[in-house]
Amino acid sequence: MCTGKCARCVGLSLIPMSLICIVANILLLVPNGETKWTEHLSLHVKLLAGFIGGGIMVLCPGISAIRAGGKGCCGAGCCGNRCRMLSSVFSSAIGAIGALYCLSVSATGLETGPKCLTELPNKWSYPFENSNGNYLSNSSLWDQCLEPPKVILWNLTLFALLAVVSALELVLCGIQLVNGVLGVFCGDCRKKE
């Protein structure tokens, strides 16, 4: 596959993934779709890793990769898209950092667990913080969280989604990094029409 087509394919994959991360992070901000618990969000939610890291920082390389896969700077591919490929290399490096940030925060959020009301009156804490993620496989421990209802399943689903998508984004940004470097040195392999 030529570098231009590969860049376009990677870009078209990165854009929906970044939008998935943004939506997942927005949903994490409203446990169970309700806003009455927003003052008790966990640190991992407040870091906005899906919005900033897996979202905006990956959206830019996606757009840059699509542009690198387009026609050349002069409109007919005269430079082989070398300048656009160089731009996509830098954007992909930033995207890889963003995806890595999202992946690490999501994995830590899964391991630590949500912040929830554990006892009355009003003791908000991280009941699974020292469980090393063992609460994930033992749903009988989930009763320790009184409010928000079903917050563990909510966080588990969305943080797992963020972790998987950001891992894929990291791979695709790495592919575009290599592809972009090849495109800078070799040019676009497409023929002029």
Helical proportion, percent range = 55-70%
Strand neighbour order, sheet with most strands: 1-2
How many helices in DSSP terms?
Answer: 5
Supply Rg: 21 Å
Give the overall silhouette.
elongated
The biggest beta sheet reads:
2 strands, antiparallel
Work out the number of β strands. 2
Can you walk through the features of this model?
The chain has 193 residues and is mainly alpha-helical. It has one domain. The protein is 61% helix and 4% strand. The protein contains five helices and two strands. A two-stranded antiparallel ribbon has the order 1-2. Strand 1 and strand 2 form a beta hairpin. Helix 1 runs antiparallel to helix 3 and helix 3 packs antiparallel against helix 4. The longest helix has 36 residues. It is elongated, with a radius of gyration of 21 Å. The model has no long low-confidence stretch (mean pLDDT 87).
